[in-house]
Amino acid sequence: MSKKVKDFGIEKTLKNLGIKDENKGTSTGGKYFASGTTIESYSPVDGNLIAKVKTSGASDYDKVLEAAQNAFKEFRLIPAPKRGEIVRQLGQKLRQYKNDLGKLVSYEMGKSLQEGLGEVQEMIDICDFAVGVSRQLHGYTMHSERPGHRMYEQYHPLGVVGIITAFNFPVAVWSWNTALAWICGNVTIWKPSEKTPLCAIACQNIMNEVLKENNLPEGISSVLVADHEIGQKLVDDKRVALISFTGSTRVGRMVSANVAQRFGKSILELGGNNAIIITQDADINMSIIGAVFGAVGTAGQRCTSTRRLIIHESVYDEVKNRLVKAYGQLKIGNPLDESNHVGPLIDTDAVNMYQEAIKKGKKEGAKFIVEGEVLKGKGYESGCYVKPCIAEVKNSYEIVQHETFAPILYLIKYKTLEEAIAIQNDVPQGLSSAIMTQNLREAELFLSHAGSDCGIANVNIGTSGAEIGGAFGGEKETGGGRESGSDVWKYYMRRQTNTINYTTNLPLAQGIKFDL
Ligand code: UN1
């Protein structure tokens, strides 16, 4: 471990979170085991090996499934508000571990420390949200057409919920799913990204404390640090009622088809290709802040990252010049150092994809007004640091239609708002969108049914940074899933309609007579 990283207290953080030099990647609660191969987690911050993890083998998988099924039989009998109490305790633990977990997220994934802490805050927020929802799992009651009959609906837990998450939010997405799945009475099995296994082990260690302190059975919360073959097993397994998948559209398409094939349920959070429309009535200062944070925050590796700016011709040059100036001031470097704005990409594969996208863009005619570059030299030894860049493009370029998980921002000029909205919608993805305007008519048109076709549409806020409480997710190739707010708890339950006859007759519905 380099001296520099020692200064940031990483060793102590790993110790506090129960991360050892060698870790077991399977846990069903208090028990840890691992029969698979070993993977190594390297930090994109400095390229150092953080720790090793022994992954889950096929025999571990079956043990986890069995533990989950057994735990479900018990857990579903605990009243929902009492399950909420368990989630409340997780929220408390997360408050206690916030600094350590935030730092680990920053060190293993590469996002800024502030964003790492923000991610843990999202975990705390979803716990608070879920505690409240645990007392509100209500269905409708209806008036029956038959006398002396009562009709109502109720929601029951699904069973085992499988959660497959990506590297870019290595802890929050787990909690979005688990907090709601648990209050609904489900048990969960998490397959985290192999790029951030230590974040997953740390979360499981924290949850294990809660399970132990409450004497709860093994198998309510399990983790499988495993390769894609085990992931595929989970997707294909009839015993897993719901798969919540976060990742690329390419993989999500297969997951969705496989789960549907066995009539399982899925929640999909796939790629985004998010745009901000900057109109002639925009507050330019706010627009610049929103655009720059949206494009370079998490080094452009959020599914909500701003990838396109659609700018009115009358303010185009002003916005462009100010962006170039703002990009010139960006400090790129160790994300644990709070004076830096931009950290590294997750790994050198991501760096290659960034370079490929720039090359492709140039071939198609993209005009780079801030050039991209892979940074070299002191502080950049991991090879994962890149310069955020900006290019003027046409929306129809193939590369612009594609989500590149890197800080590449595309500028597109427009004349009328209708044209801007059409450009905004003219991509395969439909996650997040925004308009910057002080004009009520423009804002309302953007939010209307003739406006943005995305799951998230904001006014005078950028595309990223959605808060817990609103349903999060998107349309089209983003997959249609919703998480972490509103009434999405319903996705984690099965609905049942009940009709009760409290008379001595058996009248049939729809006026049908059946005399014996
Ligand atoms: C993601 O990138 O997968 O809205 C999730 C945001 C965060 C979540 C992003 N709250 O930017």
Automatic annotation (TrEMBL):
Domain (Aldehyde dehydrogenase): residue spans on this chain: 36-497
Top-level taxonomic group: Bacteria
Active-site residues from the entry: E269
Alphabetical list of PROSITE patterns matching this protein: ALDEHYDE_DEHYDR_GLU
Cross-referenced Pfam families: Aldedh
EC number: 1.2.1.3
InterPro entries, A to Z: Ald_DH/histidinol_DH, Ald_DH_C, Ald_DH_CS_GLU, Ald_DH_N, Aldehyde_DH_dom, ALDH7A1-like
Family as reported in the entry's similarity comment: Belongs to the aldehyde dehydrogenase family.
Annotated protein name in UniProt: aldehyde dehydrogenase (NAD(+))
Organism: Chryseobacterium takakiae
